[in-house]
Design a protein that fits this description.
This protein is an alpha/beta fold. The protein has one domain: 5-stranded Propeller (L-arginine/glycine Amidinotransferase, Chain A), CATH 3.75.10. Helix content is 29%, strand content 26%. It contains nine helices and 15 strands. It is globular. It starts with a strand and ends with a helix. The mean pLDDT is 97.
Length: 219
């Protein structure tokens, strides 16, 4: 299932929200209609919380079914709202905007090439996946230009064929290029998705929707 959406009037809903196969984290105060869309399209439990006192949840967390990586500015009362069986890892370094710097599914994670070895261990242990350092289409903030699920990966339109092959091998699913929000290459900032569906920015075109549907296997 594929649906258009906005958060706080913005088509860059991936900046505000994050999702996995099991649940979605949305910011406090998000529109009730959007919460309903997430529950219906992604078929997940919804958790509403600030992260580091901010509504920019999608930029500050990265997650899969096993765990969630958060910025070191996240507060205890915010993290207490997350499911109790979920592993939580903290990015204790300058590159602490986890959502911007990590692209992950339930098999692997691609991480900003300057991330520390300590952070890589935290990511590996928390998400329970193979971790790879790298850039995508020359962009080091890989979480902003890549959207990965257990069915597919969509990436920045300048991602090379060799990069796509590498990403497909890493994540264990087909990889393709796409854009959203009328030509924006920042897929991770424009959408949230899992194997059951995706919600993408409201300014996305029909051609873009078709590419996302194909790339993420949403038939």
């Amino acid at each position: 299932m594929l649906r258009l959406g906005d958060v706080f009037g913005s088509a860059y809903l991936g900046v505000y929200c994050s999702a996995s196969e099991r649940f979605a984290i949305l910011p406090e105060g998000v529109e009730k209609s959007f919460v309903k869309d997430v529950e219906e399209v992604l078929k997940v439990e919804v958790v509403r919380t600030y992260i580091a006192g901010s509504t920019l949840v999608g930029s500050l967390v990265a997650m899969n079914s096993n765990g969630v990586i958060v910025t070191n500015f996240a507060e205890k009362q915010e993290l207490a709202k997350l499911p109790k069986d979920l592993r939580i890892g903290v990015m204790e370094e300058k590159l602490n905007a986890a959502g911007n710097n990590i692209a992950a599914n339930d098999k692997a994670a691609c991480v900003h090439p300057a991330a520390s070895r300590y952070s890589l261990r935290i990511i590996e242990d928390t998400l329970g996946v193979e971790v790879h350092l790298g850039a995508i289409a020359g962009t080091e903030t890989v979480g902003s230009v890549c959207l990965a699920t257990s069915k597919g990966v969509v990436c920045h339109p300048r991602t090379s064929e060799d990069e796509l092959k590498g990403l497909s091998s890493l994540f264990g699913v087909p990889a393709a290029v796409a854009t959203l929000n009328y030509g924006t290459p920042y897929l991770g900032a424009c959408a949230i998705a899992n194997s059951k569906g995706a919600i993408v920015g409201s300014t996305s075109t029909p051609i873009e929707l078709g590419r996302i549907e194909d790339g993420l296997g949403l038939y």
